[in-house]
Amino acid sequence: MTRYQYLADLLAQRIEQGLYQAGERLPSVRTLSSEHGVSISTVQQAYYLLEERQLITPQSRSGYFVTPRKAAPPVPAITRPVQRPVEITQWDAVLHLLEARSDEQTLQLGSGMPDVGQPTLKPLWKAISRVAQQQDERLLGYDTLYGLPELREQIARLMIDSGCQLGADDIVITTGCHEALSISIRAVCQHGDIIAVESPTFHGIMQTLRGFGIRAIEIPTDSSSGISLEALELAFEQWPIKAVVVVPNCNNPLGFIMPEHRKRALVTLAQRFDAAIIEDDVYGELAFDYPRPITIKSLDTDGRVLLCSSFSKILAPGLRVGWVVPGRYFDRVLHMKYIVTGSTTTLTQMAVAGFISQGYYQPHLRRMRITYQRNLEIFTRLVRQHFPCGICVTRPQGGFLIWVELPEAFDSHRLNAELRDSKIQIAVGSLFSASGKYRNCLRLSYAQTCTDKTERALAILGAAVERAMQSCSPVHELATASNDWGEGRASGKEQR
Amino acid sequence: MTRYQYLADLLAQRIEQGLYQAGERLPSVRTLSSEHGVSISTVQQAYYLLEERQLITPQSRSGYFVTPRKAAPPVPAITRPVQRPVEITQWDAVLHLLEARSDEQTLQLGSGMPDVGQPTLKPLWKAISRVAQQQDERLLGYDTLYGLPELREQIARLMIDSGCQLGADDIVITTGCHEALSISIRAVCQHGDIIAVESPTFHGIMQTLRGFGIRAIEIPTDSSSGISLEALELAFEQWPIKAVVVVPNCNNPLGFIMPEHRKRALVTLAQRFDAAIIEDDVYGELAFDYPRPITIKSLDTDGRVLLCSSFSKILAPGLRVGWVVPGRYFDRVLHMKYIVTGSTTTLTQMAVAGFISQGYYQPHLRRMRITYQRNLEIFTRLVRQHFPCGICVTRPQGGFLIWVELPEAFDSHRLNAELRDSKIQIAVGSLFSASGKYRNCLRLSYAQTCTDKTERALAILGAAVERAMQSCSPVHELATASNDWGEGRASGKEQR
Q: Which GO terms describe its molecular function (chains A, B) (predicted)?
């Protein structure tokens, strides 16, 4: 970390802690320079950075001031899904979300797409070129069912950071995390079985259950600590649950990292009721804090955890390179792998293996962690600025997804339809529930660097939310009553 | 086609028709030259080609002679599988076959791997390089569920030759034909349903049924004309069959092309019993005769045919680019596509689209059709030469797979174990039956150009078959009794 970055972080922290209040003038460049023993230009660069992050505002000839802002909205309370197994619905809404992603004109605020435009990803193109130049005939033939040995070797090494001591032979390469989840679910469950899931949870998991005729029981989930183990235990006692699917690290959509003691308790619980744990770690490497959080797999003592992951969120989803560590279910997972795709594309496996072995992975990962953390700061600031009061917003600990909870009566489907003309796409909350709950919620992505377009989109979004909230009157009162934040709001207010 | 190739084919035809008998001296180079009005060197090249194809043998100073050979063994009779739905077994044997394919020392006579070493495939490497150089960010992002529009466009055009008038929007791209079959089966069937299949049929189809808890009823199948429509009708009357899976063009493993009137009759039958038809056309383009045979899909009037195919057999399986034309099941197939892999690797889709649009596909396909047809000639000649009598061999009309039926008591599993030390791998017949029938059969591939190694392998194989046949005495008598073929046999006989 450079000096100016260090200084900027220090000042940001002081602002966050209230040492410098909103609207207060910050120390002059000269003062800070002598106070911290750094050059004038270092302080200036630090201030530019903070300005970029919208934490401070320059006023001509009088220096920098702390940008006034609203208090952080509260985080959502623990969820309260239906407490019985249900058949999964919502496919139409998922399809709608997926179809919107191919429209280049639309601002994809609802997509799970990472930022693939960073310079640290450039060597991937070279890795692909190199593979093509080598004309290795292995690339054209059927790969083994297990996947490319050199890639499995690299993955085993990467996973040490997540607490897993694995060999290449413990890993099966898949066509993205999607296939990893799909074959894992199918390996441990039959048609008609019941699986417990976090609520809300990733729609891909839910649709897979639907496709295989498996029912889901949604378990209350806290946006800071994850799935309620107490509720899960009750569910286990009441229903013959075969497996639990969780996204414990940088959860999609809630952004939490499940505390380690709760991960341990989950393993114990699964052992007590002899259930499998399917762990989706696809965002795990993108935790803001270093070292990254451990996986539940690393606590697995009897092979009941199936760890699923991919390079889709860290590198690029178009590669379709994922993996599964199936533990005791290895043979069944392998059989399902054969059934589903036979083998994985060799070319992209080779390119990824080359990218990692040449040392490009870690620098890229570091960059993405910092980038997403900064994006989050700016994004939440904009959300605070443009959204009305009376909402709850998650505080993600990694990844690039945020969950916004609006008053109960709010209908995100209607909002989505409204936004279509403005070419803005969001993920409606009901996608993340088996039974279509969370219509009053949105999942937004801050993967892409905030531009004026993003700000305009959030202003439109905020205004639409405000209008909708006004039209359901009790909510309106709440919103107005608690609207005691100091600053003027952009377009939203004017449009009333 | 060059002049010398034309002449060689003409002479080959005459030999096949018996105009030139085994051991007979062929016309001199000079005679042929004047007879056909071609140059001496053209005749010489034609003779070299025939020599390479082992149809003629040069004798120093006396010219060329027709190579003596045995009569063609008969084709297998129509199969007689179990006439009720069964649960599928045989996964262990399939896994064994798949694992052998990564051993580079082993001669893969049992694999479904095409020849990827041909020069007409070289532009594919360039297509991949070009994609990498363009650094098109679409390559990194999620593709649409449907697949790359330009590739679907190209596929729609290619399929005109198979009688199908399709638009790009009728097609969904998949991770190989494997995924196409898997999602098609799952789209039309539930757990516990019954599907009718040809017997024998591709093990990938069978294992998919197993994975989804679907039972198979194997229908008697003729090695020249395909599935018995009479037996299928009886099965329809007796069981609630949801769908029929067929490989009507260049069948795997029997090599037949189903006659057009039988394709029509199959569609009528499926309509009568309201069943879906899942058509695997993965070898269809490799039919020896031009124009290629039509697909059943081209006869589909009410959208009940799901056509599955890929570039795995024509270009290269490592690409994992396939497709499905799901007809009326489009939405369900799309849902299953989302569940199974989410989307298909973009890079390989772009490379294939580039390869086709730049005009490399048709020349490559032509070359492969000719290559496989020649390989087949040489391969069957070697089989005749090295295998004992009392066997039946299919006469493939395309593709690169041949099916050898040995006497009932023969155990191909034991043979396979025996061959392991010699580093030869075959596909045991029982892989191709739901209930493990056809232990007395082998599927062999002639995709790779015959080398001395292939000949040695077939000699070892033939000898092992002969030994095994001797050990089961009635078969032994049969083999000896009918062993009236004119020529001495290689290693096999000496080892007695």
A: DNA binding; DNA-binding transcription factor activity; pyridoxal phosphate binding; transaminase activity
